[in-house]
Amino acid sequence: MHIWEEEKQCYIKAAMERNSLEENALLKKRLDQIDWTVFDHMKRKETVNERGVFAPLAAVEIGEIRAREEEFRKIGLKTIREGKVGAVLLAGGQGTRLGLDKPKGTLNIGVNRELYLFEQLLRNLMDVTEEAGVSIPLYIMTSNINGQDTMDFLEKHAYFGYSKEYIKFFVQEMEPACDYEGRVYMESNTEPVMSPNGNGGWFGSMVNAGLLADIRARGIEWINVFAVDNCLQRIADPLFVGATIAYGCESGAKVVKKAAPDERIGVLCKENGKPSIVEYYEMTEEMATARKENGELSYSFGVILNYLFSEKKLEEIANAKMPIHVVEKQIPYIDLEGNERKPEKPNGYKFETLVLDMVHMMENCLPYEVERDREFAPIKNLHGVDSLDTARELLQKCGVKL
Ligand code: UTP
């Protein structure tokens, strides 16, 4: 029996009772097309919590980066000028915490003028293209939900001055969403709720979209992947690229020093000898508070969703299975009476793979320290921690006129 035929699937059943014969034929066809295997993960909410043996991983810290700045910049700029660096903007998420019904990048972060999140990110990238004197290919991942709006918005704003021929879009895959009992939510009479499958499948989605040919034709050897919501981040940062190459690593991760042992941030460390990210909730008290001889935290560098990967390595791992995370989210749905519901708090599960799990598939990864106040201003909420308010404050501190 298919999952959707189970007795408990009340939302599907209620829709079928309301539907005409034609609508039910459409719905059944749709349900048959969906791969329901992700639901197996419901039994174990997190498939990734069986972890190996953790050990600290030393970072290249700000002091050393300053001392070797010239060397790193030279290598990074040379690599960029040779056309070997591309960037991928992860913009397929739904930004539910922000409560927007349009793509997160279209958020106006200005105060006295319009300044959109996408605009700020493109400006950050243009700092590098201006310095290097070449354009950098930028691939933008969207979803079926926000893809058209994203393309229309950027087109309307003439890509905020970035060369259009260097921007390409691709769409990520979707997975069904359900309530806490595993009952599939309905989006309409003929469509179950489908939501983006996380940010971990980005390279696979690029391959599915036929972009591998483009990457190869352009000779891209390094891909800098980054999130849409950190408005302060440096993209294709020559120093980061240069340091990763100088250290002979096949990947790098921008990290910030943890503000406190219990800060809610994933920490880059080693697991069974390989680089890995341990989530704050997976750390034992002992691990979180362990200190080095000099008094600093042993596990002290948190990731900020800005990674550099060797393209060759990405191709090698393109077909590898990634762990599926079962995450609680707010999921709008059609209730049993046929009314639209927009919950204010999480009401079920989505199934996601995460880019941070790619790090564990690498032989090595360079933790590259950046100044938090200059490079980390994520906008996850409207107010409070990691919000539009805190990001505006940080942008202003960095001299951005709002
Ligand atoms: P978040 O984990 O913050 O998720 O994404 P989100 O969907 O944007 O926001 P909430 O949790 O619903 O409030 C981190 C980055 O990964 C991208 C987001 O666009 C953001 O840049 N992402 C997330 C995707 O590209 N696809 C996804 O399926 C999920």
Features:
binds uridine 5'-triphosphate, 402 residues, alpha/beta, 16 strands, single chain, 3-stranded antiparallel sheet
Describe the protein's architecture and organization.
By secondary structure, this protein is of the alpha/beta class. Helix content is 30%, strand content 19%. It has 14 helices and 16 strands. The strands form five sheets. Strands 4-3-2-7-11-8-16 form a seven-stranded mixed sheet, sandwiched between helices. The chain has a three-stranded antiparallel sheet with strand order 1-9-10. Strands 5-6 form a two-stranded antiparallel sheet. Strand 2, helix 5 (117-132) and strand 3 form a beta-alpha-beta unit. Helix 4 crosses helix 9. The protein is globular and about 70 Å long. 40% of the residues are buried. Bound molecules: uridine 5'-triphosphate (UTP).
- How far from one another are the termini? 57 Å
For this structure, the quaternary state is: single chain
* Broad shape: globular
Number of strand elements = 16
Cα Rg: 22 Å
| Main sheet characteristics | 7 strands, mixed
**Rounded average pLDDT:** 94
As laid out across the biggest beta sheet, the strand order is 4-3-2-7-11-8-16
Percent helix range: 25-40%
Structural class by helix and strand composition: alpha/beta
Tell me the fraction of residues in β-strands, as a range.
15-25%
Poorly predicted ranges (pLDDT <50, ≥5 residues)?
Answer: none
Give the bound compounds: uridine 5'-triphosphate
Order of helices and strands: HHEHHEHEHEEEHHEHEEEHEHEEEEHEHH
Tally of DSSP helical segments:
14
